[in-house]
Amino acid sequence: MKFDQPAQSNPIDQLKVVGRATDRIDGPLKTTGTAPYAYEQYQAAANPAYGYVVGAAIAKGRIVAMDAGEARHAPGVLAVITADNAGKLGKGSRNTAALLGGPEIQHYHQAIALVVAETLEQARAAAQLLRVDYARSPGAYDLAAVRDTATEPAEAMPDSRVGDFDGAYARAPVKLDASYSTPDQAHAMMEPHATLAAWEGDKLTVWTANQMIAWARTDLAETLGLPEDKLRVVSPYIGGGFGGKLFLRADVVLAALGARAIGRPVKVALSRPLMFNNTPHRPATLQRIRLGAEADGRLTAIAHESWSGDLRGGGPELAVQQTRLLYAGANRLTALRLAVLDLPEGNAMRAPGEAPGLMALEMAMDEMAEKLGLDPVAFRILNDTQVDPEKPERPFSQRRLADCLRSGAERFGWHARRSPGSRREGNWLIGLGVAAAFRNNLVMKSGARVRLDRHGILTVETDMTDIGTGSYTVIAQTAAEMLGLPLDKVVVRLGDSDFPVSAGSGGQWGANSATAGVYAACVRLRERVAERAGIPPAEASFADGQVRGGGGRGMTLAQAAAEGELVAEDSMEFGDLDKRYQQSTFGAHFVEVAVDYATAETRVRRMLAVCAAGRILNPKSARSQVIGAMTMGVGAALMEDLHIDKRQGFFVNHDLAGYEVPVHADIPAQEVVFLDETDPMSSPMKAKGVGELGICGVGAAVANAIYNATGMRVRDYPITLDKLLPGMPERAELG
Amino acid sequence: MKSFTYEKAQSPAEAAAAAARIPDARFIAGGTNLLDLMKLEVETPAHLIDVNGLALDRLEPLPDGGLRVGALVRNTDLAADARVRRDYPVLARALLAGASGQLRNKATTAGNLLQRTRCPYFYDTNQPCNKRVPGSGCSALEGFSRPLALIGVSRTCIASHPSDMAVAMRLLDAGVETVKADGSRRVIPIADFHRLPGDTPQHESALAPGELVTAVSLPPPLGGKHYYRKVRDRASYAFALVSVAAVVQPDGSGRVALGGVAPRPWRLESAEAALPLGARAVTEQLLAGATPTQQNAFKIPLVQRTLSAVLAEAKG
Fold it and tell me: Which keywords does this chain's UniProt record carry (chain B) (predicted)?
């Protein structure tokens, strides 16, 4: 099915199932510990051996010699896989560094060996017996130090220029020119990368944790040099991804190689300390923002430049992309610069680009509002736009940023905000902050197959994944709505490359695109059912488990499938509506912080997000997405930071004690409001994504609240107490 | 993790004798630190002596009005004990400021005292670390040092001691009761229990080979107001950047000990005379001679400000 005209009225609009706050249908499996995640696929393959991944001890250089003799003879060891004996390996186009390194080492903890043994403990113990001699090469590990060597990544995102930024900025009566930095960050999802691999002859099945089944299969085929039809990738449950599981990783390749070497299934999970340097991370950025405005607050000049680094052949953090669309202003400039760094591979993490970009832009907007003597909410509304500022003939399909800001301000009690550093409660300095949330809505072709059986059970099969987001449930809601069934008559099977290729989970495109694919398949199934019932498809209606036509004709769906299962398959392909209309999601984040007068510790006291993101398919799981993203935004603002050892070239705090993410005690009352909206340009579902919108702007809202509390502007994230202390009032005690 | 042999100890004296006799033996109680280190092969004991069955899990009043805390009393139980909460609130607060509920349920009094540094280089066996591999060098000195120590350190090691409980114990002048391999018993004043790194950062306590901690004795209650103020990047489940333990008497005299700044709980009795003069005077003496790195120099003003807030609260 092709979606190239705005959606008309369709069965989804009934909203009997879709749009209702619905418990996750996979919830009981998860809360009882019976959902088989990759490492717990006990039924899938008998008697697996265990692989333990060894990471390189240097950041850059070569393995001069590796002695695996002792490891091979250690108790229980079945094989040691290294680049020497793995055979020729290719590399998927989505990977920058090789997933099995050696002799060349491209980054710290790049996998150099897999030790396979009867037990995990034996494999882990033997891994310590590998003797590796390295020759180190000098590397670049400090973004600031190589900033001047950075070049324009023209393929990823060339510079954009509209009007005459330099002239307009020079003429602007009110100007801001400020620099910001964001650190390297880790996804730090609960489930590490894990895979169980089993060969049957020349056919390989991997049970793994991956957001994008089709990408993983393609890249695995490239890496192993096998045709895709010999590979099956299964990933029904995923314990968090955040972008860290978008791509094929070392666990899959090494489990496959290990299983082939010993002729037996092998399972591999990355140990927690490997997670931070072996797998990709969100790259650090250095950003410069210049804003020019008329005295009345209208922006006339906007420039946003960002520097980031990656391994040679890698890509930039797209930290300026939202600046092209967020605010009006006739004269504009954005530029990315990419430097070569020999740190581990950078890649996508929740709202790549927007998350760090808005941490800078939305702080700059706060600073500019103050310069202009405007309220930050009013300043943003004043510079709102309903069209793409670079192409004014191209409107937004929906854009309710101003509504989000206004409604949020009222709900949050924004009027109580005082001047910076002037509100105290006991030992705390109190501040309020706001930021806009903005993230584009992406659409991806997505397919599904639906089966109706003689018991009236509808089964949906698609390689869509559920990374904790609630995909199972919104897909079930969609299918139930389309066929007029209650939710408990729908079975959803996800994450298997034997199923039709879907949009997958990433870029907050999953829910809208994948349910649109299910919609397409269900439209076909409705036709089959109608035919069976002898009803012209155009006249058929589906409700209460029955299909009905004119004149009272009809039957139950079970009856329709009594003579044999009815199967339909289709995919949703998206036309150019996303070119003709800019499709985006919007929100406003409001944050209240308290900063300890003595210690400068910042604690968030309350948060509100007001979102306008199309039809909300399941308000319950959508809210979970947003509060999770808000939590991640608090982490980015206050604590998350991969500390680099700039001599050795690695992230030092590579465990969950050292890489701090918020804990329950850090997270206060969070409120999420979805404005009532449908977007007929997005898909027949009229939905958009929320999973990344929720993090966009949060960091800046926290930072702006800290400024309001203390009068101190820290532009270097995360805003830890050591950065605030020098500016805190001399006397540590109140009074 | 290397393979190891295992025994359940039958008595404290036998445990100590076995630990001295068997090469590379370690005691194991809660295991919350040791097992992690063994998985990483930071610790590679050949033999584990499980002391959990030794009936050292009791709290008993002492004739002088103090309280003896068995070595195996779990952190959760110690923090919840009514006598501790009433007479030694600084200790209860320090305990509850540490780790998480699950860890405190397992972690023991002696194990907490003997927990090892959280310096990230100590945990990464690819990196030089004098504490892990004597003579290999200190990666932290010129590397990532924000959480580490700035006083009592040496050129060989700037690891900080991670315990909260130990800071309160130091403030209270606890005594560490032990049994040695020869069966003799002694009490080590807590001030002498933790060693500074000097040239041998691998030696962290005054314990002789095989010597087993059996209890920690708390002197009679001090009275006064008790504070344990832990400063950290997140609100829970994080090690202290700095912590201030204090007991302040109505006349303004008192005691102060610090966590997060040194290789051991940091207290200088001589500095406490300056308490009536305020936080700056005390901090100057407490941290005189500190050698911070660029990354952890913020801890000096942070100590002063935190202590200042504590003293202000004590006054108010």
Answer: FAD, Flavoprotein
